[in-house]
Design a protein that fits this description.
Glycosyl transferase family 2, alpha/beta, 14-stranded mixed sheet, Nucleotide-diphossugar_trans, 701 residues, 33% helix, Spore Coat Polysaccharide Biosynthesis Protein SpsA, Chain A, 26 strands, globular, single chain, Glycosyltransf_2, 4 domains, transferase
C-alpha cells in the first residue's frame, strides 16, 4: 500500500532495484525534499541492508518495477487518484509533483543534464486508443531528437490491456516518457493543460494518438520559432489521410493543406465571415491538429477553456492570442499527417452548434468591424471589474515627452479605488527604485521599501548598453536592497512590450507579468506627404538609448537634417562620443526643446530617424504610428511588436537608412502602411485601461 491521502503532500518515490547502491539516490532525494517540500521514499524490490533516514518512507514492492508499473497503470489503489511514472530523478520537477499525488522515478540519472529548456514537450491525451497506439508510438519514436530533444507526456485514465502493455513497454525503454495515470479522465483539453503545466521545455505541442508526423516535423517547427521570435505558434502544411496504418508508417500521398499560405499569418486568417445575413464566423483554424507553440503563451493567455468553448477550445485560444496582435507561422512543407476520423473528439457531441455560437459571440465583432472599415478594436467593451488600484504619481514628473506620461495614469482612473486603499500602482519603477527624490524613493533622503501590495510598469530593457545610464537597468536595481525588500509585496509587473515581459520571466519566473501596448494621443496632425515632398527633411527625435550620432552620419541626399535635443541629450551624446568617437556634423540643424506646435509640424512633414541600441517601448514609435509618419528604425523585437514584421523602412544602420531615404516610393509605402497599422492595433488610452482590466494579472489582485 502506498501511503497517500488527499491532504498529504505529494510523495516522490525512487525505485530501488535489489542489490543496487542507493547512497547517491538518497542524497538527491533529501535535497529534493528540502527544496520542494515533498515527502520522499524508496520503492524497494528487497529489504535494504543498510540504515535509512528517518524521514524516508520505505515501501517493499510486491514485484519488480516493470511489473509494478503495469499493475498500477491497469488499476490504481483505492488510496490514490493519480500517479506519475518518470524515467529517473533527473526528470522530476516541482511542476510534475504539483499535478499528482505520487511520482515514481526509475533508477538512473539523478540531476538534470544542464539546460533543458530548448526542446519540445509533446502532450498526449489517451482515450480508447487501441486501434492507434502501436502505430502512434512507432511514429513518435521515429521523430528526430525523440530521445534527447523531445519529452513526451501522456495523460491517461482507464486503460485497456493493450494500452497498459504499450505504456509499460515504453516506460521500460524510454527515459523521456512521463505517464500520468488518473483515476478519472479530466477531458481532452484539461489533459493538454495538465501536460503543459508539467512540461520542462520552452516549446509544447499536442500529439493526438490518431495523427502522425514526419520525423522532421517537431525539429522544423522549433527551428521556425527560434528564427522568428515574434511568432507564438507554428504549424506545417497538413496531409489528410483516411486509413490508419497499424504500424504508424506514413502515407505516401502528401496533399499539403495550407501549403499556399506560407509564412506569417494573423487573427483575420483564422476565420472569415459568411455571406449570410447576419453573417456567421466560419472557422479556418490554420494551426490545426499538431502545431508547436511557446509554452509562455499560457502565462499571458491562460489555458484551453473546454468548459466555455468545448471542442472549439483550441481554435478559440489561437483567436484570443492572435487578436492580441501575436503572429503565427505556416511552414509549407507537408510534414503533418491528419487522420480524418469520423469519431474524433472534434466531431463528437450534440452541442457543436451552440459551442460554435459561443466562439462566434466572443470573436466575430472585429471581423464585422473590419468589413465595415472600422478599427478592429473599436468593438471591444470595457469589462465590468471592481476597482482595485491605488493610483500614485499623478503630479510627478517622468521625463519630458510630447504626450505626458501622466496622461497614462489618468487613463487608469476607472480602476482607482479613490480612497487611498488598494494595490499601489507605480507608473515608473525606475523612478521609485533609482532616480526619484520624493520621500521613500531611492534617491531621496529617506528611501523606504514598499510594504503594501503593489504593481508597476517596467520601462528599461535588460539588454541596454552598460555604459548608457546603467543605474536604471533592471539588472542593476533588481540587485539593490530597496528592491529586494520591496519584492515580497509585488503582485505583478507590467511591461510595454512582450519582449521585455519574456526577459522578465527569465529573471523572475514566479513574478506575475503583463504586456500591454504603450498608448498615445491619436487625435493629432497627420503626416502630409505633399508637404514632405515640397521640403524634404529628416528629423531625429529623442535621446534615451538612441544612437545619437546617427543623424550626423546620415548623408540624407536632398534632405535637411534636424536633431531635436532635450535637457539630458548632451550628456548621453558626450558618453557616446567618448566611447565611439566624434562624428558630429555642423551641417545638422540642432534644435533645443522645441515647443509642441513646432514638434507637431516637424512630425507631420518630415521623415523621422530613430536608430537605437535597445528599446522596450518608445514614445517616438507610437507618435509616428499615430501620425502615419514614416520613420527609419532598426528592427528590434519591441519595435516589430508595434510596427509589424513587414514594415518597409527597417534599417539596421545608417547606410541602410540612407539607401531607404533615397527611394521616394519607400517613403510613400511606409506612410500607407502606417495608416493601416494605426487602425490594426489599439493605441488608445481607453484600450490601455481595458487591456489591464481584462488581464489575468488584474484578476489576481
Amino acid at each position: 500500500m502506498i501511503p497517500i491521502s488527499a491532504a498529504a503532500r505529494p510523495l516522490l518515490l525512487l525505485a530501488h532495484p535489489a542489490g543496487a547502491d542507493c547512497t547517491a539516490g538518497l542524497t538527491r532525494l533529501q535535497e529534493m525534499a528540502t527544496e520542494w517540500n515533498t515527502r520522499i521514499g524508496l520503492l524497494c524490490e528487497a529489504v535494504p541492508d543498510h540504515p535509512l533516514p528517518t524521514n524516508l518512507t520505505v515501501i517493499l514492492s510486491p514485484s519488480p518495477l516493470p511489473e509494478l508499473r503495469r499493475s498500477l497503470l491497469s488499476s490504481l489503489p483505492d488510496s490514490i487518484d493519480s500517479i506519475a511514472f518518470v524515467g529517473d530523478l533527473s526528470r522530476v520537477t516541482p511542476q510534475i509533483l504539483a499535478e499528482t499525488q505520487c511520482v515514481i522515478a526509475g533508477p538512473g540519472a539523478l540531476y538534470p543534464a544542464g539546460h533543458v529548456e530548448l526542446g519540445c514537450t509533446l502532450v498526449t491525451s489517451v482515450f480508447r486508443s487501441d486501434s492507434f497506439i502501436t502505430g502512434f508510438l512507432n511514429n513518435s519514436l521515429a521523430l528526430v531528437g525523440y530521445d534527447s530533444f523531445i519529452e513526451h507526456i501522456f495523460l491517461t485514465a482507464a486503460l485497456s490491456d493493450i494500452e497498459v502493455e504499450a505504456f509499460g513497454g515504453l516506460l521500460d525503454r524510454q527515459k523521456n516518457a512521463v505517464v500520468l495515470r488518473n483515476r478519472k479522465d479530466p477531458g481532452l483539453y484539461a489533459c493538454w493543460n495538465l501536460g503543459i503545466r508539467m512540461a520542462r521545455h520552452k516549446y509544447v505541442s499536442n500529439a493526438n494518438v490518431d495523427d502522425l508526423r514526419d520525423p522532421l516535423q517537431v525539429k522544423t517547427l522549433v527551428e521556425d520559432l527560434e528564427a522568428n521570435p515574434d511568432v507564438l505558434v507554428a504549424a506545417t502544411a497538413i496531409n489528410p489521410f483516411y486509413d490508419y496504418p497499424p504500424d504508424g508508417s506514413l502515407p505516401v500521398e502528401r496533399a499539403g493543406w495550407y501549403a499556399d499560405r506560407a509564412g506569417r499569418y494573423g487573427f483575420f486568417d483564422l476565420a472569415h465571415l459568411t455571406k449570410d445575413d447576419p453573417p456567421q464566423l466560419a472557422p479556418h483554424n490554420m494551426p490545426h491538429c499538431m502545431p508547436v507553440w511557446r509554452r509562455s503563451m499560457h502565462d499571458r493567455y491562460g489555458w484551453f477553456d473546454e468548459a466555455h468553448y468545448g471542442t472549439y477550445a483550441d481554435w478559440a485560444f489561437w483567436l484570443k492570442a492572435l487578436q492580441d496582435g501575436a503572429a503565427a507561422w505556416m511552414n509549407p512543407a507537408p510534414l503533418s499527417f491528419y487522420f480524418v476520423n469520423p469519431t474524433s473528439h472534434n466531431r463528437r457531441g450534440t452541442d457543436l452548434e451552440r459551442l460554435h455560437r459561443v466562439v462566434e459571440g466572443d470573436f466575430i465583432a472585429p471581423f464585422i468591424a473590419r468589413r465595415d472599415g472600422l478599427p478592429p478594436h473599436a468593438t471591444r467593451p470595457m469589462p465590468q471589474v471592481p476597482r482595485k488600484l491605488n493610483l500614485t504619481g499623478r503630479s510627478q514628473m517622468f521625463g519630458v515627452h510630447r504626450n505626458s506620461f501622466n496622461t497614462l495614469i489618468h487613463a487608469l482612473e476607472p480602476l482607482d479605488r479613490t480612497d487611498g486603499t488598494g494595490v499601489r500602482f507605480l507608473p515608473f519603477l525606475e523612478r521609485y527604485f533609482v532616480w526619484g527624490t520624493d520621500p521613500g524613493e531611492a534617491a531621496s533622503d529617506s528611501p523606504a521599501p514598499l510594504t503594501e501590495d503593489w504593481i508597476g510598469i517596467l520601462h528599461v530593457p535588460f539588454d541596454a548598453p552598460d555604459w548608457y545610464g546603467p543605474a536604471v537597468s533592471p539588472e542593476r536595481f533588481f540587485d539593490t536592497d530597496l528592491w529586494r525588500a520591496s519584492r515580497p509585496q509585488c503582485r505583478g509587473i507590467i511591461t510595454l512590450c512582450a519582449d521585455l515581459e519574456r526577459d522578465l520571466k527569465v529573471v523572475d519566473p514566479d513574478l506575475p507579468t503583463l504586456s500591454v501596448l504603450h498608448p498615445t494621443e491619436l487625435d493629432v496632425r497627420m503626416f502630409d506627404h505633399a508637404a514632405y515632398r515640397a521640403r524634404p527633411r529628416v528629423v531625429q527625435v529623442g535621446d534615451w538609448l538612441r544612437r545619437l550620432q546617427g543623424i550626423h552620419r546620415l548623408r540624407a541626399w536632398g534632405h535637411e537634417r534636424i536633431m531635436l535635443m532635450k535637457g539630458q541629450t548632451q550628456g548621453y551624446l558626450d558618453a557616446e562620443i567618448a566611447r565611439f568617437g566624434d562624428y558630429l556634423d555642423p551641417a545638422v540643424d540642432v534644435r533645443h526643446m522645441v515647443p509642441n506646435d513646432e514638434y507637431d509640424a516637424l512630425l507631420s512633414s518630415s521623415v523621422v530617424i530613430c536608430l537605437m541600441y535597445a528599446t522596450a517601448a518608445n514614445n517616438v514609435i507610437v507618435e509616428c504610428l499615430a501620425r502615419a509618419t514614416p520613420l527609419l528604425v532598426n528592427p528590434l523585437p519591441a519595435v516589430i511588436e508595434y510596427l509589424g514584421f513587414d514594415y518597409p523602412l527597417y534599417a539596421c544602420d545608417v547606410a541602410e537608412a540612407d539607401a531607404l531615404l533615397a527611394q521616394p516610393e519607400k517613403i510613400a509605402e511606409a506612410h500607407a502602411y502606417l495608416l493601416l497599422r494605426r487602425q490594426a492595433i489599439d493605441l488608445t488610452y481607453s484600450g490601455f485601461c481595458r487591456d489591464i482590466a481584462a488581464s489575468g494579472l488584474y484578476a489576481g489582485l
